[in-house]
Each structure stands twice: as C-alpha cells, then as structure tokens.
Specification:
Layout (H helix, E strand, L loop, with lengths): L1 H38 L6 H24 L7 H4 L4 H26 L1 H10 L12 H32 L12
Helix pairs in contact: 1-2, 1-6, 2-6, 4-6, 5-6
Length: 177
C-alpha cells in the first residue's frame, strides 16, 4: 500500500513539475512578445502583462508540490545538511504534520470563499483591456494547496522509509544521536 502511494506521489509530482516547466516556457514567450511589442512596435497589451503574472502565479503554486518531492523546499540547510538521515526524517515528519499539512489545509479551505466571491461578482481586471474571469487565477490557490496537502502524504511515506531504513550496523536504531 505504501509503495503504491509513493509511486502515485512521485508520478503526480513529476507531472506537476512538467506542467510547471511548460508554464515557464509559456511565460517566457509571453514576456518576449510583450517586450518586442513594447520596444520594437511601440505598442503594448495590458492583457499580455496580466498574463505574465497569471502564468507566474500558477507556475509557482503548482511548483510547490514538485519542490517538496525533490526535497528542494526552503529550510535552514546549513544545519539540516549536517544531520544524519534519520534526524532529517524526524524533522521532515514533524514539520509535515505540524506545519505543512495544517498550513496547506488552512490556505486551501480559507481561500475558497475568496474564489467564490470573485466568481459570483464576475470580477474582471480593473485595467481597460485586462483579463476577464479573475476567479480562474484565484482558483489556483485552493487547488494548489489541496494538491500540496495530498503531496505531503507521499513526503511522509518517503521520510518514514528514510527513518526505518537508516540504522547503524549493529541493528540498533540510531535515534537523534
């Protein structure tokens, strides 16, 4: 069961990493087009400028889960890198249970009304020529944090394995030594 959960977590996170990479390419092309229009043709588009931050926001929000899988998320690596694998696993498990999951669920469920209000009011860009349907970009917030909360289950499995598999040669557990 844990193996299947771990594989599902890995595949889903890798897929999110791929989507994030595609969004990065699209954002780069969008910025390039915006710069060419502005400096070569002396024209611009507010919709293109808004699309830049929309793509960046979705790229960032979806990339969080991939960063978690790749163990490249933010922490105090100066201390963490010096620790034994079991200590790292304990830190990751405690951090996931007490910080990551509650924070992810708080943001996910706390932002649903934010999205619903934007949808019900028909919120659009405040700038003339801006993008309509502002609720779509706002919906990326609860979706990405729900994905992060689910991804944390795979991260828990990874760290349980790390904790279980790293013992000293005598077979005794090396726990926080």
């Amino acid at each position: 069961m844990l193996d299947r959960l771990d594989r599902l977590y890995a595949r889903t996170s890798d897929w999110l990493g791929w989507v994030t990479a595609i969004l990065l390419v699209l954002m780069t092309l969008n910025v390039f087009l915006d710069v060419v229009l502005r400096y070569v043709f002396n024209t611009g588009s507010i919709a293109l400028q808004e699309m830049e931050w929309h793509l960046f926001a979705v790229m960032f929000l979806l990339g969080i889960s991939y960063g978690l899988k790749e163990d490249s998320h933010v922490r105090v690596d100066v201390i963490y890198d010096q620790l034994a694998p079991r200590k790292k696993a304990v830190i990751n498990l405690v951090g996931t249970f007490f910080f990551l999951i509650p924070f992810s669920l708080l943001i996910a469920f706390g932002s649903i009304n934010f999205v619903a209000e934007a949808y019900e009011s028909g919120e659009v860009s405040g700038d003339p020529g801006g993008l309509p349907y502002r609720w779509i970009i706002k919906a990326a917030i609860p979706v990405s944090f729900l994905i992060l909360a689910l991804s944390s289950l795979g991260f828990i499995v990874q760290n349980l394995r790390r904790f279980r598999d790293n013992r000293d040669r005598s077979g005794e557990h090396e726990f926080l030594t």
